[in-house]
Amino acid sequence: MSVLKLDHLGYSYDNKKTMVLDGIDYEFEKGTVYAIVGKSGAGKTTLLSLLSGLTTATSGKIWFQDKDLSKIDRYRFRSRDVGVVFQSFNLLPHMTAVENVVLSMDISGKKLKDKKKTALELLAKVGLTEDKAGRRVLKLSGGEQQRVAIARALSYEPDIILADEPTGNLDMGTQDEIIDIFKRLAAQEDKCVIIVTHSPAVAQSADAVFELAPLRGASAS
Length: 221
Description:
Layout (H helix, E strand, L loop, with lengths): L1 E11 L6 E11 L2 E6 L6 H8 L7 E6 L2 E2 L5 H8 E5 L10 H12 L6 H11 L4 H4 L8 H13 L5 E5 L7 H18 L2 E5 L3 H6 L2 E4 L10
Parallel strand pairs: 3-8, 3-9, 6-7, 7-8
Antiparallel strand pairs: 1-2, 1-4, 4-5
């Protein structure tokens, strides 16, 4: 059964005069890594924003576990059901890696006896030692910061991981390591992982590729 379903999905910035996305039907399942690809202007980032509940569709629907996403508590959805990983990491630089993960748990309202212990376990899962977990994120490499971002996204146990160009700032070797983490999350933890990417190597490593074509007059990324 699909965890996310696009039902004739459409979006425009100007009251349907210029459609960025139009009539899209697609289903995303748990246990699978998806790559969303397409040229600039195809609406990849817009689609990710719609899937995360940050933006509302102009037409059609997104179904989350058979519930209309536009009619559920989207704050709860974003803080419980979907984790987002960004190209620029979006970590708090004055805090340590483990503090960033614990803060995410606090925001989501997750109840745990020892959040720091759980955060350290999550960071270890993505390949960060306890020593590096205790460092401020500015003292970590780009690849290490992205690992922190993934651990943060996992901190409230979401079913869905959305990643916007998660390897765009990384070298090829680190890119492969990050993609291996995503593949492991899908295969071993039954996560639905959806990655927007321009990288042919990332797309090739995914289980399924969803290609968007730019519509006439569209200008979104």
